[in-house]
Amino acid sequence: FDRLQGEDGVREKLIAHMAFVHACMTSSCVDYFEQYRRNVYVTPKSYLGFIAEYKIVYEEKLKHVEGLADNINTGLNKLLEAGQDVEKMKVELKEKEKTLVVAQEKSALLLQDITASTAKAEKKKSEVEQVKNVLAGEAHEIALQKDVVEKDLAEAKPMLDEAENALKAITAKDIGLLKSFKQPPDLVKRVFDVVLILFINEVVPSAAVEVEGKTGKRLQLEGSWKFALPMMADIGFLPSVMGFQKDNINDETVELLYPYLKAPDFTPEDAKKVALALAGLCTWARAMALYVDIAKVVKPKMEALRVAEGKLKTANAKLAKAQGELDAVQAELDKMQASFDEALANKQRLQDDAEATQKRMDAANRLINGLAGERKRWGEQSQAFADEIKRLAGDVALACAFVGYVGPFNAAFRDMLQVKKFYGDCRDKGVPVTEGLRVSTFLVDQGTIGDWTLEGLPTDELSIQNGIMVTRSQKWPLMIDPQSQGLGWIKSREGKNSLKITNLLEKRFRNVLEDAMAFGNPLMIENVIEDIDPVLDPVFNKEIQRKGRSLIIQLSDKECEYSEAFSLFLCSKLANPHFTPELFAQLTVINFTVTMGGLEQQLLGRVLQKERAELEEQKLKLTEEVNANQKMLKQLEDDLLYRLANSTGNLLDDSELIEVLQQTKVTGVEVQEKLANAAETDKRISGAREEYRPVATRGSLLYFLVVDMAAISNMYMVALQQFLELFDVSIAQSDKAPLASKRIVNIIDYLTFHVTCYMQRGLFERHKKIWVLMLAMKIESVADRLSQNYISCLLKGGGALDPKTERPRPHDWIPENVWMNCLALSRSVQMLHDLPESMSNARSSQAWRDWYDFDAPEKQPIPEFDERLDKFEKMLLVRALREDRMLLSAQEYMIDKLGERYVDSRPLDLAVTVDEANERVPIIALLSMGSDPTNLICDLAKKRKRQVLMISLGQGQEPAARKLLSTAIASGDWVVLQNCHLGIGFMIEVEQWLIKLEAEIVDSFRLWITAEPHPKFPIGLLQMSIKVTNEAPAGIKAGLKGSYAWINQDMLDSNTQPQWRVMLFSLCFMHTIVQERRKFGPLGFNVPYEFNQSDLSASVQFMQNHLNDVETKRRPVDWIVVNYQVCDVQYGGRITDDWDRRLFNTYGKSWLTQVCLNPDFEFHPGYMIPANKPNYPGTEIDHFRKYIETLPLIDDPEIFGLHSNADLAFRAAQTKMTLDTILDIQPKEGGGGGGMTREEIVLKLVDDLQTKLPPDYRADDVSAGIKSLGGMGKPLNICLKQEIDRLQKVLKTVRSMLSNLKLAIAGTIVMSPELVDALDALFMARVPPLWTKVSQLIAPNMGVWFANILKRAEQNTNWLRSGRPFCFWLTGFFNPTGFLTANRQEVCRKHTKDSWALDDVVDSSEVLRQEREEVRKGPEEGIYIYGLFLDGAKWDKTKDKLVDSDPKVLFAALPVLWITGALASASKGDKNIYYTCPVYKAPKRTGLNFITAVDLRSEDAPSKWILRGVALLTTTD
To answer: Choosing a second label site near 1297 at 20 to 30 A (CA), which of 216, 537, 770, 1355?
Structure first.
């Protein structure tokens, strides 16, 4: 910060701003999570990185701006000086022209004198030349003589040099070594004999001796070693050898040497083997002998040369005299010439000066005029530089905050942070900053962005920002890249640098990492998951150490080499990963998720490549040219400035520089013209391209809808590459048209429906309508025909309004939540602004009530508003008043906007799916209840004559599965991996296996994977596969369509009995009914069984066999057997609940009987059997299929035997699920802030609960109370004691946890996992898990649960203190079954005299006409209970019987019920019909919640109430 420029105090303001940025990012992370459900963390390391980056960028930018300022100011000064110089030159030029005339006259006179003198000098010159020529010939001959002599001497020179070098290598120590030999080798003696002879020293008299050599015995002279030792001992021995006078050697000496030199081992090489010094002396001796041989020839020649040189010297003296005379004459001549040259040069100088001045003037004018535009621009820039430098403080802060903090956020949130937070705070704190600063252009130039684009980076702003962060961040980048766009860019960008690609699961991962670090290669780690091996921490933290000259990194227990050229990139395909705060501290997390605009541009290019390829080629070529020209223009300007700024001396004197500047300017103008032309061309191409933009817009919309579906379930994930293939197929297969506008409509229609079919094939039924509704809304929203307010109103209704602060509802028939919806609707939709007034108005209120009470209000005209509302607004009104009918209204809206085919069901066609897949594209079948496609796969395989290899995954099944896969890829069979959610680890292995599979695969191989949705299912596997679901289609029509898509003509013709087709249809109808009935929840079946295709197949097979048997034995159909086999065996084999079995058998007795063969039989009005009828003879499969197409899309619940209220409950739940699902994936609106914190809210709730919590039960008080009630001898008193003990356990747990929670929030004790769960639950107004576990009471929210506990405490306390209640609240018992058993025991004891045994007694019940408040005393025998609710019916007190529920009233309170005991043998009599009604603790009718069964009087057959699903509940929550 020492170089920070700006006003006083800017440093303090900047520091405060940087602190604010870090602080605000912490809260922004929370806002981001609340809005987008994405986790981002900010750590202190982020702040340190922010500061470090600021210093670097500020230095760079300041240096750049100051350098630019210096260059521009220098350039401007040079241009200014040039202008001033031009004015001076005009005056100088006139003076120089006058002086030039005088100089020309003086030169003419001098020329005459010089001409006369020159003639004399030329005569003398010719005489001297003759003498010189003679002497030159003689000198040439002597030179040739000299060359010959020198050549002869040169022959000896290499040998002499070698000898000299060898001698230089000899040291006194070497001589000492030789001297030390007591008995030296023979060669040593001989070498030193030669040295003695050359120095003419004393040697022994000549005598021959015989020695043993390598080649055998030989004679040689006797050695003189004794004379050699004193010679070596002489301190001047070596210098004397070095300075030896070789010219003194005579022929006699050489003759003496001859016997020695001719010895075969007298060579330097042999001598070197003995000693290095000996080799040197040996080389020297041989050289001396050679020199003498050469000197014999050379010496006479040298003598002759000396004589010749003497003669030449005398002749040269004569020549010198003559030359002196000539020089004197020439000197005079030169003097005159010099005077003339000076005059001429002066004249020329004056002339050149004048011309130069003229040229400078011309060049200056050209330069000044040529750079006029730059001069103006530079002038403006020069004035702005000071302000720009001042603004750098804030600009760099904005840029570095952007690079350091905003990487993980999406585009919208980034813009908000940049504009509102970062820029806003700079402005508020007074930090100088550029308004509307674009980080992308601030940190990189257009040329760099152009290079990135050519490397494959998308051109949208988000991608460019990401590119900046990847290239500028000080930390390694971790890219959140579900569409692999960043991955593709990095592969293209770093491919030329030998990029290595690996993933954390690869076996050789460590080796690849170590090699990349050692050799400095870039490394890409793909498919990063949320948990990363800590072994990488040293690499992430760049813990580089220097060891000697090398760099190392310590990876666990191993030191790895590290190169500074190494770079690391990490890439995750997770769409919404939850990385740890530590990882955010170590890496720069960058959100590369594609934006809608970015994808639209890519799709536009893609559609044009198919439809208008020439346009796209022009566009690409133009982009490359523009990029190159922009870079050249920038280079030219930089070069221009550099040359101007760095020119020395006067600018106008440097003609070369001026020429270069001019050439640069010309080139710059040409480039600018090219850019201008390119802009025009781009405008023309863009205009033509824009025609196809609707296709790209629709494509982008569809892809982001696909992404939204993946947010609902990760199993719906589709790779961008898969989507692009769908996009290409849609372009290729859509109808051609001569007009582009018609062709575009065709592509859009085909693309929308094709993607819908592709997606819906892999969606669960409950999500298919969500897709279509969201598609319709997105299309309308993108086209600006649907506002976000409308969508928000649809999703939220009046949930945000507080009934206490709003105007009260005008009528009792309007539920409170409906009224809130209406108020919210009136504020969101202008057309309905007066809706509350219309509903309150006495004139129209009855019309509204009638509309509200209709079974299908969406089909009725809307009072007062019908004409002015469109389909969506009508849907909003239906959603507000009749939420249960909203999806039906939505269906009309979807049909209106998209067409009926979008809401029709399409049976799964596995054959098409198999053809669409290939040997490397697996098919994932998503499992749900009753949707296993294994049988369908096996059937299809049989038709294709392929073998199916199946294995169900689980512990230890992986080796067998691997074996199946390796076998199948070679044989071309199909592999079915079942229940893969149980082998997620193996699924990751399968993904890698498919990616790296290099072996040849038989084309017919297919991999099938069946799995339930699992959050950890490998993303890569999901993205490379085709997903399918095989749920029973929603609706009777869809179900029957599915069944009759499976049934074919062959099956229809398999039996000739007339009953066959009727029974087959009846069975399919019942199959559809029992599947569809599950959607009604507990009203449908207590347990949602997996009735599926295999049940239907088995039942059809049985019926075929039975009818064949009937035909053979000529006997009637045995309906009892048919019922038993279908209802109790095939389907009944799945049924575990006795009440469900009763229900299923009721269907069988209604539809699988003789009555279904009657011609006028109907399952329900409008639902007949299309066989043996005039219009539908039923002989062809198409008769059935055509009839099924005539069935309504919406099913009346009466078809199932249910009350219309069941449909209301189901549809209300379905609507809630649909809207909640859509709402969950929408970005959440930011909060206003300023409210209480989470902990403060919980503390307030804890205080409130503690004040309301009942006191603990004291054991003494309980014992005394029980004693006063008659003691533990009475069964009901035992029950009371058990209930109080259980309640006390709950109270103790609650009290303890509330106290600990307060201490933990205060920091006094550690916040345990249980306390964390409790904190989260209480904040969300839910029941802490531990409380639910202890109480075994499941409640929708905290308020209901706590009120229930308080009421239980009240009942138990009153019973203990005030005696047995007249009427018991059955809901308040932890063990209501035990309570009823105790009651039976008491009744039994009263009938001891009658010999009643407990095992013979059953509960006997009667519904009274009294309500709880009307009961004044208890029964004489048995108990009164209250708090029961009828689900599926109501009780008519006046007639004492079960009757149908009131419309839109789901639960009806039952009056007081008297329960006593009676002998099982006692009969009610035949006069009354009774429905045996099960009683449950909660709406969820499981065996654990079952209490007992009571008989309720009815005038209708019990089958009616069985099909209605009527039950009694102790609570409706």
So the answer is: 1355
How far apart are the C-alpha atoms of 455 and 467, rounded to whole Å? 11
* CB proximity list for 591: less than 8 A, separation 6 or greater: 407, 408, 409, 410, 466, 480
Mean per-residue pLDDT for 872-882? Answer: 93
Residue 875: alpha-carbon gap to chain centroid: 37
Look at residue 655 and tell me whether its pLDDT is greater than 80: no
pLDDT at 380 (0 to 100): 61
Q: Find out whether 1042 and 1033 touch, Cβ atoms under 8 Å.
A: yes
**Helix pair 485-494, 461-472: axis angle to 10 deg:** 50
759: closest CA among 700, 694, 707? 707
- Helix spans in 1114-1180 (H): 1119-1123, 1138-1151
- Give CA–CA dist 487/680, Å, rounded: 34
Does residue 1209 contact residue 1080 with C-beta atoms inside 8 Å? yes
CA angle 773, 775, 776 (to 5 degrees): 65
Q: Give the mean model confidence (pLDDT) for residues 1007-1022.
A: 91
Kind of pairing between the strands at 974-978 and 948-952: parallel
> Percentage of the chain surpassing pLDDT 70?
91
Tell me the β-bridge partners of 1458.
Answer: 1406, 1424
Q: Is the pLDDT of residue 895 over 90?
A: yes
Q: What pLDDT does residue 1235 have? A: 55
Tokens of 4: 């920070």
**Burial tier of 983 (Cβ tally within 10 Å: 0-12, 13-18, 19+):** buried
Residues 1463-1485 as b or e (16 or more Cβ within 10 Å = b): eeeeeeeeeebebebbbbbbbeb
pLDDT, residue 364, reads 67
Task: Measure the CA–CA gap between 777 and 785, rounded to whole angstroms.
Answer: 9
pLDDT band at 922 (very low <50, low <70, confident <90, very high): very high
Q: Is residue 898 very low, low, confident or very high in pLDDT (cuts 50, 70, 90)?
A: very high
Only one residue has tokens 């897949």, namely 917
Whole-angstrom Cα distance, residue 507 to residue 502?
10
Quickly count: other Cβ atoms within 10 Å of residue 1395's Cβ. Answer: 7
Tally the residues of the chain: 1517
Position 1231 confidence tier, pLDDT thresholds 50, 70, 90: very low
Q: How far apart are CA 997 and CA 1192, in angstroms?
A: 50
CA–CA distance, 768 with 902 (Å, rounded to integer): 10
- Using DSSP's 3-state secondary structure scheme, residue 1091 falls into coil
Question: Are the CB atoms for 40 and 419 separated by under 8 Å?
Answer: no
Provide the CB-side half-sphere exposure for 890 (13 A, CA). 27
Alpha-carbon torsion angle 1065, 1068, 1072, 1075, nearest 10:
160
The two tokens of residue 317 are 């003296």
SS3 1512: strand
Report, as an integer, the average pLDDT of 706-716.
91
DSSP type of residue 1487: G
Closest CA to 635 of 447, 847, 458, 810: 447
- The residues, any chain, with a CB within 8 Å of residue 1466's CB and separated by 6 or more, are 1404
CB 1210 within 8 A of CB 1450: no
| Element holding 1492 (H helix, E strand) | strand 1490-1498
Nearest to 368 by CA among 150, 665, 809, 703: 665
**What are φ and ψ of residue 1408, in 5° steps?**
-85, 170
Q: Radius of gyration of the chain from Cα atoms? A: 53
Distance CA 1004, CA 972 (A): 5
Q: What does the alpha-carbon distance between residue 364 and residue 1266 come to, in Å, rounded to a whole number?
A: 119
Q: Whole-angstrom distance between the N-terminal and C-terminal Cα of the chain?
A: 64
Smallest CA-to-CA distance from 1385 within 1353, 1359, 1351, 1422 is with: 1422
Q: How far apart are CA 1131 and CA 1075, in angstroms?
A: 11
- Which positions ≥6 away from 1311 have C-beta within 8 Å? 1304, 1305, 1319
Dihedrals φ, ψ of 171, to 5°? Answer: -115, 165
Place of tokens 């009466």: 1198
